[in-house]
Amino acid sequence: MSDNNDLKKDFRAALQQIRDDYWRSLEQGVEENDAGQVLEYLAVRLGNEWYGLPRAGVREVLRVPHLVRVPGAAKHIAGLINLRGDILAVCDLQVLLGGAETALSPAARLVVVVSGDRMSALLVDEAQALLTVNEDVIEPMTDEAVSARV
Question: Is a pLDDT exceeding 80 seen at residue 32?
Answer without folding.
Answer: no
